[in-house]
Amino acid sequence: MFENLTERLEKALSGFKDRGKLSAEDIKKGLREIRLALLEADVNYKVVKDFLQRVENRALSSEVLESLTPFQQMVKIVYDELVETLGGKASGLNLTGKPSVILLAGLQGSGKTTTAAKLAKYLKKKGHNPLLCSTDIYRPAAIDQLRILSEKIELPFVSATPQEKALEIAERALKIAKDSGRDVLIVDTAGRLHIDEALMEELKAIKDFLKPQEVLLVADAMMGQDAVNVAQTFQERVGLTGIILTKVEGDARGGAAFSIKEVTGCPIKFLGIGEKLDALEVFHPERLASRILG
Ligand code: GDP
């Protein structure tokens, strides 16, 4: 995960290692290296610019310039600002509803259906009793996929009948969740190959009806800045409460992970780190920043 970025940042920062006092010029040179490392990792250019501005403001303070251990100070500043860029504190799920509704949206192939099951499994382990449902009436195979995954994790699933509309399934699922005392309802929605007007309207209608506590976009980290653009569009059109980035274990660069919060204003809540149903991690900005900086 993010091996390239880790390597490049380490190299950029190593210029400060074993140095006595630093000049402003030394710092600026180091910052140029960090800038290149982030751009090569496919981080959004504006995010890179803001990040470097914050690092530079702090690094050019007398504290660092006059320090006898400038390397440690630089690492600390870069760490702090990375955490900031990644979203600051970990933001958990809002589960205050009765039941709490989690609506999942995203492009086809992003890992939405798998993530619905992963999330259900995670919540079950935490003592919740989720109910799953899929409103992807356009792809019966997707509905079937979630039904099979629900069986695997031994959780109930609301089946769709062929004549039902997506909104009707959502309405029925909410009623079943209430009547059967389920505390979380996870609703998978239709996948799209690209942003599609009609499906966006349908998603909005489901959201307006369910009034979910969480609207999570499932986005494929391997898509880099395209994933960020998709998240931005869903945020503008439907409104999101968070993002789940998938396939992160295969992403050596990290461009989506490092841009998506700053660009969209939505926090990353979970990382998908594999195909198995327990390959889901709560996202902690501090832990990721530590991992990146070694
Ligand atoms: P959907 O079309 O968005 O519902 O996507 P699926 O849930 O069907 O997932 C598409 C593919 O991505 C499947 O082969 C999943 O096993 C795979 N997948 C989902 N999440 C992850 C992940 O975090 N890591 C990896 N490597 N594969 C994933």
Automatic annotation (TrEMBL):
One Gene Ontology term, aspect cellular component: signal recognition particle
Q: Could you confirm whether the keyword Iron appears in this record?
A: no
Give every SRP54-type proteins GTP-binding domain span.
267-280
Q: State where it is primarily located.
A: cytoplasm
Could you tell me where this protein is found in the cell? Cytoplasm
Picking any one GO molecular function of the record gives: GTPase activity
Tell me a GO biological process for this protein: SRP-dependent cotranslational protein targeting to membrane
The UniProt record lists the EC number as 3.6.5.4
- Residues binding GTP are 106-113, 188-192
User: Can the keyword DNA repair be found in this entry's annotation?
Assistant: no
Q: Which keywords has UniProt assigned to this entry?
A: Coiled coil, Cytoplasm, GTP-binding, Hydrolase, Nucleotide-binding, Ribonucleoprotein, RNA-binding, Signal recognition particle
Q: Which reaction does it catalyse?
A: GTP + H2O = GDP + phosphate + H(+)
Quaternary form? Part of the signal recognition particle protein translocation system, which is composed of SRP and FtsY.
**Domain notes per entry:** Composed of three domains: the N-terminal N domain, which is responsible for interactions with the ribosome, the central G domain, which binds GTP, and the C-terminal M domain, which binds the RNA and the signal sequence of the RNC.
Question: Which family, according to UniProt?
Answer: Belongs to the GTP-binding SRP family. SRP54 subfamily.
What's this chain's function? Answer: Involved in targeting and insertion of nascent membrane proteins into the cytoplasmic membrane. Binds to the hydrophobic signal sequence of the ribosome-nascent chain (RNC) as it emerges from the ribosomes. The SRP-RNC complex is then targeted to the cytoplasmic membrane where it interacts with the SRP receptor FtsY.
Query: What is the recorded name of this protein?
Result: Signal recognition particle protein
Which species is the source of this protein?
A: Caldimicrobium thiodismutans
Q: Which residues of the full protein are shown?
A: 1 to 294 of 441
